[in-house]
Design a protein that fits this description.
Number of helices: 5
Largest sheet: 3 strands, antiparallel
Number of strands: 6
Helix content: 10-25%
Length: 146
């Protein structure tokens, strides 16, 4: 009696030859960043260096004047423009989740939380201009006991 292995049984634990490796290893592959579409803009985020702090004034004047910058937006700018909070992924009964904004407006709650975004013609202009913004943070005193 002969048994035939099902197609899925041959895949598990077996070496699978990858077809795309050769072109990427030899530099002939196309990555997403290699695709150039006319009119494409690039974004760079200004991120909080603090794990928890109040966001004060955000001075975007220098960043706005940088060559190639098309716009600079803070969390407050988005709220004033009527941009709604992000929708919640879990819509369970009686689940209460506060609004989650795209950019922090008043308080940053983790290190690296975005407080502003720079939109520019090139990724380099966006990154350079994002480093020019001045953000005033008020870090609360550390709590060492409950």
């Amino acid at each position: 009696m002969t048994t035939t292995a099902r197609p899925t049984e041959r895949l598990f634990g077996a070496s699978v030859r990858r077809r795309e490796d050769q072109r990427f290893v030899t530099g002939k592959g196309t990555y997403t960043d290699d695709i150039k579409v006319p009119g494409t803009t690039h974004a760079a985020f200004v991120r909080s260096p603090f794990a928890h702090a109040r966001v004060g004034n955000i001075d975007t004047t220098t960043a706005r004047g940088y060559a190639g910058v098309l716009g600079v937006f803070t969390g407050r700018d988005l709220v004033d423009a009527g941009v709604n909070p992000l929708p919640v992924g879990w819509l369970l009964p009686n689940l209460k989740i506060g609004p989650r904004r795209v950019l922090a407006t008043d308080v940053v709650r983790f290190m690296g939380e975005a407080v502003a975004v720079v939109i520019a013609e090139t990724p380099y202009a966006a990154k350079d201009a994002s480093e020019l913004g001045q953000v005033d943070y008020e870090e609360p005193p550390a709590k060492t006991n409950a």
